[in-house]
Amino acid sequence: KVVKILSAADILNAKRQGKIAIIYGFQNAAMVETDARKVDVFADRGVRIIQLTYNGLNQLGGGALVPGDVGLTPFGHEVVDRLNARRVIVDLSHSGRAICLDAARYSKQPACITHTGCRTVADSPRNKTDEELRLVAERGGYVGIYFMPFIAPGRAFSSEDVANHIDHAIQVCGEDHVGIGTDHGVTSLGDMAAVRKHYADMVNDRRRQGISAPGEDPDLLPFGTDLIGPGQFRTMIATLRKRGYATARIEKIMGLNFQRYAQTVWGG
Q1: Helices 159-173 and 130-138: crossing angle, nearest 10°?
Q2: How far apart are the first and last CA of the chain?
Q3: CA distances for 85 relative to 90, 145, 216, angstroms
């Protein structure tokens, strides 16, 4: 029922076969330790996306919550070189502003931000500035807008809030470079008391680890009020249609832009 993705063609093949396509990726590059050649170990096993940092500091540079905005280190440049050589996507989600700009400029392959929001729309360190969004797009990259509480801090959010960020991202990046990058998704809810306890426990644990971003609230569920289950994508499409988005633009946002971007980095 599932297939591992190694190239852009594999995504299309999975769709034709009615299978679920799985892309292996990391949300931190700390596991390369001090040897950029370790990228090869993961690439050889099918990893196709590696995020340079999580929220904190690692040997490549600074994440979104690091004071002082630490840019791409000399070792970080080595890792980006290896990612480019192995045609692994350079993911700048969770990164600080400086490392995002540094890596987007340095990478020979277009980089991406798989899951983020727009800081102009909602001021959160997990959201990207227009400068970051624009540079990634100008260099041929991809920006995925997430279904996460950072798009509307302090309250429940909906597909309308996601659409606000998509609207802005398209203004900054153009419609060929913006899509969906949900982060996590919710397939079903069940016992709401258990769901609320699960997410509260998760947020509190992340706070204890020092990796929780501002806007993560143990009393606030981290998914959209109308973005639950497989139908959430149909809901998102309907919301964009109400805003006057043409079918061709919606198709780009819902997958074609990422497919084109993946083809650029991974090949067929």
Answers
A1: 60
A2: 22
A3: 11, 27, 36
Helix (H, G, I), strand (E, B) or coil at 3: strand
User: CA 111, CA 190: separation in Å to the nearest integer?
Assistant: 38
Residue 228: the pLDDT is 85
State the chain's mean pLDDT as an integer: 95
Q: What is the pTM of this model?
A: 0.94
Q: How far is CA 47 from CA 7, 25, 52, 75, in A?
A: 11, 5, 14, 20
45-97: per-residue pLDDT in tens?
Answer: 999 999 999 999 999 999 999 999 999 999 999 999 999 999 999 999 999 99
Work out whether the CA dihedral 207, 184, 154, 213 comes out positive or negative: positive
Q: How far apart are CA 118 and CA 123, in angstroms?
A: 8
| C-alpha separations of 203 from 58, 78, 215, 218, 257 in Å | 22, 34, 10, 6, 32
CB count, 10 Å around CB of 184? 10
User: Of all residues in the chain, what percent are helix, strand and coil, respectively (each to 5)?
Assistant: 45, 15, 40
Confidence class for position 223, pLDDT limits 50, 70, 90: confident
Q: How many residues does the chain have?
A: 268
Structure confidence at residue 188 as a pLDDT band (50, 70, 90): low
What gap in Å lies between CA 19 and CA 84, rounded to an integer? 29
Closest CA to 145 of 101, 114, 187: 114
Q: Which tokens go with 202? A: 């998760």
Long-range pairs, 22-26, Cβ under 8 A, ≥24: 23/48, 23/49, 24/48, 24/49, 25/49, 25/50, 25/51, 25/89, 25/91, 25/114, 26/50, 26/51
